[in-house]
């Protein structure tokens, strides 16, 4: 059986858990990461030298990096409805997965650590404001895309791209901006509600964890 190493509150672990739910794929999970077994343990480092979760063990196959993992699971376990083989359809999905991992993640990093995690190392007001503005800008790009499709991020159907994007949307709505204004994003809000119809999202997306 597939084994997932990583604490369930991690946004990147939750990508893998949600993908497994969509694929109806059974798994076991072990808690690794802050507050649990340390990823600096030699046994964990032998699996992922980056000391980061998640890691999967699928038989004797070991893989890390959450986006690589969810792509692998779709390829290995009949996930073509989520991640089609046709190159142009797949490229559109990959485009949004990669955008979430780069542009969107970078935009929120300082603001999220300051406002949601209350990190003492992230207390610079100018940096918080700049990150809030950057985050609002990237969410505005998502707003435009969802207004165009009227459904999901890569088109009319739910795809693998909606897993990392959906978790990012949950993080957006769960993070208080305090004195900094958060723009109204009606298409993103409708998308947020649309995702809530999916069991995997209710379990691992909109579950009170940002």
TrEMBL record:
Sequence similarity: Belongs to the GST superfamily.
GO molecular function: glutathione transferase activity
Segments forming domain GST N-terminal: 1-81
Entry annotated with the keyword Transport: no
Keyword annotations of the record: Transferase
Gene3D superfamilies according to UniProt: 1.20.1050.10, Glutaredoxin
Class of this enzyme: transferase
Gene name, Swiss-Prot/TrEMBL: gstB_2
Name of the protein this chain belongs to: Glutathione S-transferase GstB
Organism: Achromobacter kerstersii
Pfam families (UniProt xref): GST_C, GST_N_2
PANTHER family found in the cross-reference section: DISULFIDE-BOND OXIDOREDUCTASE YFCG, GLUTATHIONE S-TRANSFERASE-RELATED
Domain GST C-terminal: 86-210
């Amino acid at each position: 059986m597939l084994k997932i190493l990583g604490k369930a509150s991690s946004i990147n672990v939750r990508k893998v858990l949600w993908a497994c739910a969509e694929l109806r794929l059974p798994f076991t999970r072990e808690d690794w990461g802050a507050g649990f077994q340390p990823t600096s343990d030699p046994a964990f480092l032998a699996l992922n030298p980056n000391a980061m979760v998640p890691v999967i063990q699928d038989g004797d196959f070991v893989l890390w990096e959450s986006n690589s993992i969810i792509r692998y699971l779709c390829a290995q376990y009949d996930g073509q409805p989520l991640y089609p083989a046709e190159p142009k359809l797949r490229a559109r999905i990959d485009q949004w997965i990669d955008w979430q991992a780069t542009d969107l993640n970078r935009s929120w990093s300082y603001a999220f650590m300051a406002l949601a995690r209350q990190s003492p190392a992230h207390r610079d007001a100018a940096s918080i404001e700049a990150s809030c503005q950057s985050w609002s800008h990237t969410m505005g790009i998502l707003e435009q895309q969802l207004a165009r499709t009227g459904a999901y991020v890569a088109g009319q159907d739910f795809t693998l791209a909606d897993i990392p994007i959906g978790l990012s949307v949950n993080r957006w709505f769960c993070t208080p901006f305090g004195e900094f204004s958060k723009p109204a994003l009606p298409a993103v809000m409708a998308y947020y509600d649309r995702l809530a119809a999916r069991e995997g999202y209710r379990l691992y997306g909109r579950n009170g964890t940002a």
